Amino acid sequence: MTEQLAGNGIDVDAVVTRLTDASVAYFIDQVSGENLVAHADSLLRDIFDIEESLRVSDILDPAAVQGSTLAVIELLTSSTLNRNFFEAIADAVYDLAANDTFRLGDVVDRDGVRKLVATVAGMHVMFERGLDRFAESPMVATVASTFVNRIVSGAGEAVRTRAERLPMMKSAFSLGDRTVGRVLSAGDKAFGERLGDATAAAAQYAVRRTNHAILTVIKETPIADAAMEVYDLFAEQPVSDLRGFIELEELRALIAAVFDLVTTVKNPEYLSDLVGDVVGILLEHYGDYTVAGLVKEIGISPEFLRDEFCRYAPAVIEAAEQDGILADLVRARVEPFFRSEQVREILSTAG
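RESULT FIELD:
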């Protein structure tokens, strides 16, 4: 290529090429090996120093945060990777070798369980109103009626069994059964109508009695202590013993059902309003924090970000460097600068 010398005798194109090559080499050197760690640490500390002077309310717009949050939720709910991730958790938890080593009490904190049980057991208003609403369902009435009938019939059968052991009582029961059968067959239609009315009334009565029994147990018995006693029975056993209560496929199905429930939103407008209110509450609470203070409140430090970045970046950079991809990417970004008219003018007039 013919040299194009500037008035000062400098071959501008040759100098531009050398500057570009030097810039590419310098950048690659700075992101390789120990230099990467040092620069990542220095850069992150500089960013945190800047964030110390910035207030959250001054730089975070509620609408922007709301939009970003909704975008993340959409990403989490639409990716098949997330479902596969949770299914993988189910498999890992179920087959984990450590399940045979650790007891449930070593894994699940007793104090946390106690607080959860006490909180739920103390929500009397929720139980009262919830049971009242359940009572409006005909299906619930049927379930409650069956439940009560099972208890009553079971108790009756137990009494009859004991009574029939007495002399003459078995014959008396047999005679009574035959008499009832003849009475019922004589007026089946009328009896059926009365039985239908009685069944409906009995169902409602069963619901009321069941609700009353549940509320009595919740309010007047040491249900929280009983629950903790059950926990203590399990706490001394290996975690692997829980496999006897649920199959792997059932665990997968349970996690998949919960995932679908959490990630399925029928009304995007409702979700948007909910996220908007949550963001507003959080920004009102943390608005006077500095950005660095908020990040530290979350538990993130420059060291944490540096360590996590350097956990993965070196392998990526090394692979890109070996294939020549990194040099090409850097060159594509710095060469336009060195070949710009401004740089050519500076080189042409230097001297």
